[in-house]
Amino acid sequence: MKILRIIGLLFLFMVSVNGVGHTAINPVIDLEVHALEHSEVPKLVVVKFHADWCGSCKAMGPVVTDLTNKLDGQSVLFTQLDFTNNSTKHQSFLLASVLGIDDVVVNNEGTGFLLVIDGKTKQVKATPTRHQTVKEMTKVIADLL
C-alpha cells in the first residue's frame, strides 16, 4: 500500500511541475496529495460477490445500498466483485489484489453473499447472506467496528 502512495505522490509531483521547473500551485493536486498523505485504511471492507445472472445478488442490491447509507461516515469500504463474465472476473481479481484480499477471493467461490473483511489483517470476520435482514447485517458490521 505504501508503494502505491509513493507512486501516486511522485506522479502528482511530476504533474504539478510546470515547464520552467517551478512548482505550479494547483488546489486540486494539493487536495489529492493531502488525501494520499492522510489516507486511512478502512477498519472493515465489505465485499459483495456479484453476478448479473444470480438471483441472490439481485436481491442483495437494495440491501447493500441500505447498509451503505446506514453506515455512512464509518470506517467501512463497500465494494463489489463482479463474476458475471470473464472480463468482469478478471477486473475483480485485479481489484481484489489491490485490496490485498486476493487469497480470500480465490478461496470463496460463488456469488450472492457479502464478506466482511478486517481492513488491516485481511481476515474474514463475517459472511452475511440474503437470508439476513438489513438490521441484522448492520448490527453484525457495527459490532465489528
From TrEMBL:
Residue span, Thioredoxin domain = 22-145
What are the entry keywords? Redox-active center
Q: State the Pfam families in the record.
A: Thioredoxin
What protein name is recorded for this chain?
A: Thioredoxin domain-containing protein
What is the organism of origin for this protein? Agaribacillus aureus
